[in-house]
Amino acid sequence: MAGVFPRLELGRSIKAIVFASVIGVAAVTGSFNNAQARGPESLADLAEELGDAVVNISTAQRVKAKRSLQLPDVPEGSPFQEFFEEFFNGQEPEGESPQRVQSLGSGFVIDGDEGIIVTNNHVIEGADEITVNFNDGTKLSAELLGSDEKTDLAVLKVEPQSTLDSVKFGSSEVLRVGDWVMAIGNPFGLGGTVTAGIVSARNRDINSGPYDNFIQTDAAINRGNSGGPLFNMDGEVVGINTVIFSPSGGSIGIGFAIPAETATRVIAQLREFGETRRGWLGVRIQHVTDEIAESLGMDNAQGALIAGVSEDGPAKEAGIMPGDVVLTFDGREVPEMRDLPRMVATTTIGSTVPLTVLRRGEEVEIEVTLGRLDEVAEVEQVEEEQESPKDKADETVVLGLSLAKIDEPLRERFALSDEIEGVVITRVAEGSSAEDKRVRAGDVIVEVAQEPVASPKDVVDMVEALKADKRRSALLLLSNGAGELRFVAVRIEE
């Protein structure tokens, strides 16, 4: 027994040493992490270095304001009646008088030799005069080289007497949530104001446009900060401050900036052409929901579902079809629908790029040569309401849908174009999955599970086959009266 205790004591000693070492490492690591969490000790040097490249932008615009003076409604015989009549009769009648409206924003110099300045489109939109105010008190009139409403960017040019201080763009792609950032701008007309915070989130879609991909930050951004730069700790512009969420008009710590990755491409085109020139694929797309993914046999809801293909577009020529799900574009994954328009728009016009699409359960490689997006000719999709007609005795009912083969009376009844073929929906049951998915009477079922249908029996047979295959939903390709297509996954009731 005597020989056992020394080994036991030795084991305890080793454990104690290891434990102490672990505590020591943890203490050092914790101290290091706490130091990092406190952020940079001071931003003074960085702010001093960058401040002169950030400018205040003031605009002036003359608008016609209507002026109408009306006699207040006072009781007949009131002692105030004579007074008001005398006052208002001496005034000028209703008319229009021009007024000068001014607004303020921010911007920053990206080319000191050429005098090129970047700001937001909404800062200078509709302005008759644009003045750039520098930190040293210099004021220069600016010329608008070009603007883009969809990304809310504008490029200005001034004629400097000497080289201006300027800043460079950095990479917004390497930003991580939690990275420190600094904003400089002109909030509420106060002039150069520095605020700091962190990147709160990336790739934010706030439904402000088709190419939303904002950086969210808690650095204080207020009215007047629009168009100002968001810097990383290397003094590079990683974003352009443009939007805030605020019920009061002041900062509540939720601001959004256009990523440098998006801005640089647009700015280069505005400088060169005075307009944006975006790539065009020629498709109508929609979200791949969980139900649609399940009906297509996909493991995850990802990519962009092709709902329609323009007859004269690049996609049609390349062989892209309705029902295809775009999984990759030019070697990059397409996580969800909203990513594809941004990828296409920023790709060089006329370039040939590879796509991977999921078609009937198999991945297909396609090459497409992009055209140029004619933004003026873009047509807004409008969903038309259709009244639900009365059910007929000979109608087939499946999935809560009353179906009928298209004939001339039904074609006239629902204003269906002559080119549309399929099975017309004459009534949608209340409370059905189809009603929840906004399927309407007058919609035409063109395909079920990516197979064409020509009669109500075809639809029923396809749904029964899906039931036998234990599918939980049926993927319908629907057409409206104008021939516009969309996919809808309707739940199969047991």
Give your account of this protein's structure.
- With 494 residues, this protein is α+β, with helices and mostly antiparallel strands.
- The chain is 22% helix and 33% strand.
- The protein contains eleven helices and 28 strands.
- It has helices at 4-37, 44-50, 79-89, 121-124, 260-273, 290-295, 314-318, 339-345, 408-413, 433-436, 456-468, and strands spanning 54-67, 95-111, 116-119, 129-133, 139-141, 143-148, 153-157, 180-185, 193-204, 214-217, 229-231, 237-244, 255-259, 279-280, 283-287, 304-309, 325-329, 332-333, 352-359, 362-369, 371-372, 396-398, 401-405, 423-428, 444-448, 451-452, 473-479, 485-491.
- The strands form five sheets. Strands 5-4-1-2-3-7-6 form a seven-stranded antiparallel beta sheet.
- Strand 19 and strand 20 form a beta hairpin.
- The longest helix has 34 residues, at 4-37.
- The radius of gyration is 32 Å and the shape is elongated.
- The largest beta-sheet arranges its strands as 5-4-1-2-3-7-6
Number of strands: 28
Computed Rg: 32 Å
Q: Helix count, per DSSP? A: 11
Our measurement of the CA-to-CA distance between the termini, rounded to an integer number of angstroms, reads: 74 Å
Helix content: 10-25%
From the spread of the alpha carbons, the general shape counts as elongated
Uncertain spans: 1-32, 376-393
Biggest β-sheet: count, sense, barrel?
7 strands, antiparallel
The proportion of residues in beta strands is: 25-35%
Q: What's the pLDDT, averaged over the residues?
A: 82
Oligomer: single chain
Protein structure class: alpha+beta
